[in-house]
Amino acid sequence: MKQKTDVLQGTLALMVLKTLDVLGPLHGYGIARRIEQISGDLLAVNQGTLYPVLLKLEQEGAIASEWGASENNRRARFYRLTKEGRKQLQAETKDWEQTAAIIGRFFDAKAEDLS
Amino acid sequence: MKSLRRFLNRLYNSAARREQEERLREEIVGHIALQTDENLRAGLSPVEARRQAMLKFGGVEAMKQDYRAERGLLLIENLLGDLRNAGRTIRRMPGLAAVIIVSLAIGIGVNTTVFSWIQMILFEPMPAVSGAASFLLVEPRTESGGYPGASWLEYRDLQTRVPALRDIVASQMVPFNVGEPGRTERTHGQLVSGNYFSALGLRPAIGRFIRPEEAERPGTEPVVVISYDYWQTRFRGAPEAVGQKVRVNERDLIVIGVAPRDFQGTMVPLKFALWAPATMAPALLGGTRDLEDRSSRAFSLIGMLKPGATREEAQAELSTAMAQFARDYPDASAGIGGEILSFWKGPRGPQRLLISGLAILQGVMLLLLLAVCGNTANLMLARGSTRQREMAVRVALGAGRWRIVSLVLSENMLLALLGASLGAAIAVWGTTALRVAPMIGAFPILFQTRVDELTLAFAILLGVACGLIFSAAPALHLVRLDPQEGLRSGSNTPARNRARKVLMGVEVGLAMVVLIAAALFLQSFRSARQTDPRFQPEGVLLAAYDLSGRNPDEASEREFATRLLERLRSLPDVEAAAIATNVPLDLHGIPARSFTVQGRVRTEAGQDRAISTTVTPGYFKMMAIPLLEGNDFVEMRDKSAPAQAIVNEEFVRRYLNGADAIGRRIQTRAGSFAIIGVARNSVYDAFGEPAQPAVYFSYRDLPAIQGEIHLRTHSGNETALTSEARAVLRDLDPILPLYDVRTFSQHIDRNLYLRRIPARMFVVLGPLLLGLAAIGIYAVVSYAVARRTREIGVRLAFGATSGRVVLQIIRENLGAITWGTGIGWVLAFVISVHAITKGVVNLPVFVGVPAILLGVATLACWIPARRASRIDPMAALRHE
């Protein structure tokens, strides 16, 4: 149970960082929409799970936030990537790519390759 | 780094909790509004648009939980929650909480007060000197174990011969007569080496200190440093004090500086007012040869280890140096070695004596605190059982065992720390009371006890320890709690009953030890007031004179005493007058002398010793001590009679097997004396002491440099004699002050001063402890009885008489109590026989205290038992 959340949180965090990297400052809803568009199911039901992740990233210093006005002229909290966040994103992207490549190779491997 | 920042953020968030909640709420509202707008644009009805948006957002409360867990520190927040909860719980039981907090506060308060005293002696032995505890005493030591002090020349040599110590400092305590002739006042000061103030690391309040070169050549620099108090009282703290002259022992000394505020010298707890260069000794002490004579051992030396040097090195170097002196100067130094001592073990001053007394006191007080803890544990256990259901519900709802423990712990800790804070406040009051010590004996004494960081830490540590101790039982019990069992009503496992009974026994046992100690103490204190000292202190005025400043020889000492006595006897209101070197019941005790007596053959090794005091003829009549055999000493001016001695009954019994004493000879280091009389035993050092052998010598044979004048009045108003006595002394010598004037009763009171402090503590603590024990027993028994209401009801319904029920309940509980009392009694007995009264058993205490304790315990059992036996069987059967 716990582990699953951790994995989800880890992935979500990376997605948040990437989203902010690509699109610049966004409010929570904007981030949720973007992730939804790209990942489909992951946030379709529980958009709320995003907020603990945002808080964690902010506490780690990867993102910063401030109040601003949203499209419909409401007060909204806008998150942006910090310098540290950018560094973290680069490092984690690299890690992720490496992991993905290794896992990919494992899944591609056939029985005779492992003998 | 990342985790640190996250931690700090979380810490901050924990504090700014409300603001954060608000922010999240606003974000959620904003989020849902945006999604609703989006849905509206997609063509949904407003209601449906909002519903879909909320569905999509997911469970708000679950998310908030996650958010909170992420935001703050769960541990700290839980703790704060626990504390809030504890606060609420405590508010719900004000009576119980008050009993616990106040009893803990008193226990911790007295312990902290005693500790502040010990810590002052051990860790801060010299007020205003930082790191004073690391000073070591450099003491020449005779073969028989005495510490005669060091001579000035020895000091100069040791400075270079003991390289392991840096800055050895020499000081000599001297009584000064300060002021113009006829108006002199006795003040105590120290003659010090030139490095005295610099080695102690002191800075003058104003002016400067003695320079090293000012203590090089004798008599060249008539300068003096005064204490802060002296500056304040005599110069009203005026800066012009520096440069003024003070007349000391008929010499003008120039004030060059003022010592820092709390500094009282290097022979704590003595409090000095003046410091002059040691080289002024001949000028100030009537041409004494202290500075040239190696056998004049007037100085105390202290020093500090050099960095990297060890105490063993210093000891080895000192031993080598002293052995060398013994070879080079056999007249003065033969048989004298050296010893490095910790500061608090100083042979001059009461530290050593005090420490052992204080250690016993602290031990007793800690036992008392332990008993308080036992009592608290019992109360909490009894109460914890009534909360069993609450705890069971918590466990059933998923609270972890450790959450339950931390809940109980936080409640108890809160109680303990409240007790500790109140205790610290009591200690502040107690230590301040200690500071206001009067002059004790002829010397000004000041204990600068105070509550500092270390003492506060001690109080808190005690609080935490108490909290842990009395949490242990209830916490352990609750951890093992089975929620199902707990939710069922009226369950009561025997194991817990046993735990409570054991605790009750332990508590009563501890109370027993402390109460016996308290009773013994009070008894000895009270008997001190009532015991017949076997002389008559009523109507006697005491006063002291000291010829030290005059450096007189024997003949002039004898002459002075003779003339003084003649003048005093001629005063109209004086019935009898005498002079003696010592006054009985002095805080400092009367010295004992070793001797050999004709007709006595020692069977074991060692030397015979007896209390030894020198008195003038007429002393025994004045004190109303009858001479059982023989006569009083011959008159002072008699030059024909040989040297005389008078011994007491105990001396005759112990050393002469009761044989005829008159005419035998006593040999001491001072010479040979013929026994001419036997005096009745009287009290010498303390009330209630076993009879001590004593020898009296005559001022005629052994004149002394100082003397205690004893005057008995006709009228009974002894204080009225003060001014006349002063006038007599002034006539004889205008610069000699009469000092330490007091009535004999005041003298005895002073002697009891140090005993009065613990006596007062015990007067308060004894009844308190008894009350606590009663409350503890009462709580346990009434709880046990309440649990058994139904059983009792059944028995009553079947025809048991209420008397039988009461008896049975008392019998069940008294078992544990009797065990505790018995063990405590044996413990107290062993301790008292070995440590306190040394073999003398105080029967009334050892019978009375257990009787009272058992009586109170029985009463505490009887009240709830009686109540239980009166219940209506029908009501009891319907119980729950």
What does it look like?
- The complex is a heterodimer of chains A (115) and B (880).
- Chain A has a 3-stranded antiparallel sheet with strand order 1-3-2.
- Chain A is built from 5 helices and 3 strands, in the order H-E-H-H-E-E-H-H.
- Chain A has one domain: Winged helix-like DNA-binding domain superfamily/Winged helix DNA-binding domain (Arc Repressor Mutant, subunit A), CATH 1.10.10.10.
- The radius of gyration of chain A is 17 Å and the shape is elongated.
- Chain B has 28 helices and 21 strands.
- Chain B is α+β, with helices and mostly antiparallel strands.
- In chain B, helix 19 crosses helix 22 and helix 26 packs antiparallel against helix 27.
- In chain B, the strands form 3 sheets. In chain B, strands 1, 2, 3, 4, 5, 6, 7, 8, 9 and 10 form a 10-stranded mixed sheet that branches. A 6-stranded mixed beta barrel of chain B has the order 13-14-19-16-18-17.
- Chains A and B meet through helix 2, helix 3 and strand 3 of A and helix 1, helix 2, helix 3 and helix 4 of B.
